[in-house]
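Exam revision sheet. Question 4 asks you to relate a sequence to its structure. Input first:
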Amino acid sequence: ARRRIRFGLLAIKNVGEQVTRSVIEERLARGPFKTFEDFLSRVQHKDLNKKSLESLTKSGVFDSLGIERNQALENLDDILRFTTSARRSNGANGNSGSLFGAMTLTATLKLKPAEPASAAQKLAWEKELLGLYLSDHPLNPYLAKIKATKALPLSELRLVKNDRLMLVGAGIVSHIQKIFTKSGQPMIFATLEDFSPKPLEVVVFNNTLQRTLPLWKENSVLLVQGRIYWRNGEPKMIC
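Answer key, structure tokens:
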């Protein structure tokens, strides 16, 4: 059986309850959206604006309507003009705000060509707006390399109590916080994630940071070596 994931529109950042309710009510009243133009013509809510359309697009909501994410983003101004025209047309025909009014708009939306979004870009958008990776996982292309290094899953590293063991883990950097010590030296706290339920915080002191600074970026896939220590009941790795 085909695996499916059900994810509520309301959980997408920058979309909001009113747009979500409008989409659901329109779909219940008149059936599934057949095309992207059909969606834009039928969802007549003022909050379906540039910000919410951008978030819906980046999240992959319109993938099933044959819309390539980056192409839609590059044509967002034209898309907004189309939605404005659709609302005016509905208003002129006395159908503004109606879920059942006949749609008389015949204009078509032509999107200019654009370079498709890369798989990595799609995953970054999904993580930003959904809080998780949906279409794939950024570590999948690296699984063979990670296995060859014998890196431990973060879930296993989180169980280590011996702070003398030098261990190796691998994952994607989801967040970085840079601070300065009392002596004015920079250091970072990086959140590392893999397929484990919980991430692991990695502490990078200045002496290590000076040698590895270009590597510490969000969405970087890293192999990290260090020791596990516990503080306030939570494990951390000293890189």
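Marking note for examiners. Strands lie at 167-180, 186-193, 200-204, 221-231, 234-238.
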